[in-house]
Each structure stands twice: as C-alpha cells, then as structure tokens.
Specification:
single chain, mainly alpha, Arc Repressor Mutant, subunit A, Tetracycline Repressor, domain 2, 2 domains, 11 helices, 0% strand, HTH-type_TetR-like_transc_reg, TetR family transcriptional regulator, HTH_TetR, Homeodomain-like_sf
C-alpha cells in the first residue's frame, strides 16, 4: 500500500487522520511478514507507505510507537475472536492448550509481544509508553475475565497473574521456537532433537503447570493443602 504524500499533507479532519494512521499500520503489518521487527526502520516504513519520514512522524513519533499501536490493535482483534477458540468449559489443561494454539496461529502478534521488553520499549517517549500500557492493561483485564469464565476456580487475582505469566512465557518461548536458519540447520542433528521448541506444545504445557499451581493457592496467595482431581481442578472437601 502506498499513499500519496500530498493527500497526507491535506488530511485535516479526525477521520482523515485516523485513515492515514490505519494505512501506516497496515504497511507495518505487511512488513512483519517479510522481516523481523528489529530490521524495520522508520525510513523503510515511510518508503513503503510512499511518504517522507517527516510525514510519518506526524502520526507516530517513532517506529516503536507504530508497533505499539499495531500490537494493541492486533491484541484487540484477537480478544474478539478468542471466545470462539476456547472451549466453553472443560479441564484447565484443555483450555490452556487451546489458548496456546490460538496464540501460535498469530505469529505477527507473537513477534510484537516478544519484542516488547527487548526492543520496543527502548526508544519511546514516556507519554507514548503510558498510553500503550494503559490500553494494554485493559486488554489484559479482558483476557483475565475471559479465562476466569472458563476456569471459575480462578480468583480475580490469580486470573490476572495467569495473564501476566502467559505474556512472560510467550516472550521467552517465541524466539527459541523461531530460531535463525543456522540454528535450524544445527538442530537437524538427531543429538539436538531435544533442543527444538514446539511453541504451542511447550506453551500449553507451561500454562497448564501454571494454572495447576495457581489453583492450589488461597485468595491471599498462600499454598493450600488441596489435591487436584484428574482434570487438574482442586478437589472439593
């Protein structure tokens, strides 16, 4: 997608400006299918949009701000679809596997999420970070509420903790599950088979273990002496 520079300069109304922002985000999303976020410069983004770098900065101060906005938009779209992708009820392990599979099917979102701490939060004004984190916090609260609906034994606190752990596990596992070509070639050696990371499988397993631990804590976060049933839920006494 390319946008005429003169049209961008003439964008005056809020609707026009929002349309221009959407155009920039769509180009950024397309670039992510071609290269990692670390390789995408603001200059390249502007070139692909068909604008001067100065005009892009009118809408996003830095390239990091572009990807912050894209990540929040992508998460919002995911949360809209997620209720249809999770079982309405069932063992926590089944729900966590479905959650991991849903995440694995959205590689661009995982790319951006895993880049937050290492890349995107390094060159961004404090105000932009604050705006992003407030919107991101709303998304986390929505995900926590959805997971609590599916696993009623979770407390409000533990559901928020589960979301936080999901993001941390994703950020840690995604780069190892998507290594460089040289690492892929090296791990074709049968002796290194154990070092290959299946993202959906490993994340689903890790989240299942996390939920099992959270379900053994009381509301104050203290361990309880409660055994889990075969479905991974605390047994009632």
């Amino acid at each position: 997608m390319r946008v005429d520079d003169q049209q961008f300069q003439r964008a005056r109304s809020p609707e026009q400006r929002e349309a221009r922002r959407r155009a920039i985000l769509e180009v950024a999303e397309q670039l992510l299918t071609e290269m990692p976020v670390s390789d995408i410069s603001l200059r390249e983004l502007a070139r692909r949009v068909g604008l001067s770098k100065t005009n892009v900065v009118r809408y996003f101060e830095t390239r990091e701000a572009v990807f912050f906005a894209l990540l929040n938009r992508t998460i919002g779209d995911w949360l809209t679809a997620l209720p249809r992708e999770l079982p309405a009820a069932g063992p926590p392990a089944e729900i966590m596997r479905a959650l991991a599979s849903s995440l694995a099917s959205r590689p661009r979102m995982c790319d951006l999420w895993s880049s937050l701490g290492t890349e995107l939060e390094r060159n961004i004004p404090a105000e932009a970070v604050r705006d992003f984190k407030l919107a991101h916090g709303d998304h986390q609260a929505s995900l926590a509420a959805l997971l609590r609906e599916r696993i009623p034994e979770l407390t409000e606190q533990s559901s928020r903790e589960l979301v936080a752990m999901t993001i941390l596990l994703l950020a840690g596992l995604w780069p190892f599950a998507n290594p460089s070509p040289s690492v892929v070639e090296a791990t074709e050696d049968p002796r290194l088979a154990g070092s290959r990371v299946d993202f959906a499988e490993r994340l689903g397993r890790s989240l299942t273990v996390t939920v099992a631990g959270l379900l053994t804590l009381d509301p104050a976060g203290r361990p309880q002496r409660r055994e889990l049933d075969p479905a991974g839920r605390p047994q009632r006494r």
